[in-house]
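Handout, section 4.2: multi-component inputs.
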Amino acid sequence: MNEPARALFQLDAVEVTRGDKRILGPIDLAMPATGPVVIAGPSGSGKSSLLRLLNRLDVPTQGTVRYHGEAVATVDPTEHRRRVAMVFQRPVVLPGTVTDNLLEADPALSPEKVAEMLGQVGLDPGVARQQARDLSGGEAQRMCLARSLATEPDVVLFDESTSSLDPANAARIEGLAATLEQRGITVIWVTHDLDQLRRVARWVVFLADGLVVQAGPAAEVLAQPVAAVADFLAAGTP
Amino acid sequence: MNGPDVGVVGVVASLLLIVVAIVISWRERLGLERSIAWAATRMAVQLLAIGGALRLVLAEDASLAWSWLWVAAMVVIGGIVVTRRSPGVEGLFGLACGAIALASAASLAVVFGFGMFPLEPRTLVPTAGMLLGNGIGSTVLAARRTLAEIDEHREEIEVRLSLGRSGAEAIRPHVREALRTATTPDIERTKIVGLIALPGTMTGLLLAGVDPLDAVMVQMAVMFLLLGSGAITNVMVSRGIARKLITSDHRLVRVPPQSAP
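Output:
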């Protein structure tokens, strides 16, 4: 399997089981610090389970997850999650105004900083005082991204974060992800959408049945897919 | 004072109303005939058994230790009730027993420490029964609402966790909501005391010939204790359950599936 020169995340013999059922693994994988890294595969292949290990919302049943070489099990989880932020599949709006939502990430944010954060995701700073539940789906997901960015992370994990959005809003989120990479924030993106994979990925990890079937630079993997990946690509949709 | 004189005829006469309820259920096709009959039978058997046991515990020459043992049994039964209504939460039995015992001990200390009643079997058992019996409903509700709130708002909690909030911070708004829901019936009950129904303690004292103002004073103290001890128990149970659902590394574990209420 193709190994990046410098690993952002390193998974060593990682397994996740729930009861008798194996969800993931065993997985040995290194992800590069320069993305976007796309984790792709059919529904139920373990993409989201893998992503949740990276910011420690879940822990592996066996094996070790390392971030910049350090086992994430040994670091303060609250601090780790601020460095490795997450944007969920559905825009999860917390009660209160848009400002209240951003203050959940950093209670010390000034109104000027809130306006700046909203501007970064293409939202009118005027929405700051609006009830967050009144935002449209696309606006809400951009607010969720702004909220995640308020912790000033080094990595942002997107868990199929455009699957509930229309194509225009999905494209805006993809565009914002590209700008994050330009700012030196690594994007790790889960999708089962092949078109999106081709648009977004610089590096790719293909999963099937909880196992990594191929990983490497997107151009190489897409040019020379192994049989399982070729089948997935040929199917067009999962 | 003359005690009540309820003979078999009186009980049978009151049973006629149960028959009426069963007939109504049958005619209106409510399908509750068996449930009503079972509830009435079970209640009668339970009360007869309790009555027999109370005769022994409350006898003139019975030791107070038996009464304390009775109170301890009530605490354990309370713990069992809470645990059975919220299954799958590890350690809930001990938590519920501890919370009920602590709140009851505080209330009993006020009742007997300040001389509202003399500490003897005839006062200890009914007072403890009243405090525990009235509080158990809201404790069950607090436990179930805490589990439901956390289960229903799993995404919100995980968002807060992913923003670097601690487990306690992430779960706090939902514990607060569960406690608000569980405590509201107690508050409403306190508000309407005397307006709709005369409460049990006061009624008992009036029937025993006590001056109405004295009866009211005792009832006020009891209501304060019920509200206070209910709040203590609910907070301990609700927070205790929340702590069991968050791991030491600030992750939310799966909420055990709950049956319908």
